[in-house]
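Feature request disguised as a bug: please show the residue count (151) next to NUDIX domain-containing protein in the output. Example input:
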Amino acid sequence: MANRQLRVAAYAVCIQDGNILLARWVGPDGKQWTMPGGGIRHGEDPYDAAIREVEEETGYTVEIDQLLGIDSVHHRYARRRGRDADFHGLRVVYTAHVTGGQLRHETNGSTDQAAWIPLDRVAELPRVPLVDIALSLHRTRPAQGRVQTSA
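Example output, currently without the count:
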């Protein structure tokens, strides 16, 4: 039987002057760019979690503008000792704008760098799929709040 894991997280899409605010995630497969955001603490509202996570990872305070949607990912992967993990991630994605603070890198966290990246350079970056999902939600603003995938 696989070990079930549920992770609920909140992220913010901050776009300003043709640039997007990203954080570089340090994962088991190396460093990849991601949306600023992360896990929601028990009892924490996703709205508040997005604001907290952006500040932790980038140094900026933000104001949430709009809920863009919720992305759901589900996959299995191998773990040590021959057991599989059955992972389900729910990612709440908002748009936001910077209201204060200064750009800085997170220390002792899951990211090691924060930066404003020109939107036309995002496709060149090593990035997690969430970046493309968040940009699609931002671009299309689907009424149902999810990116349509082909079956």
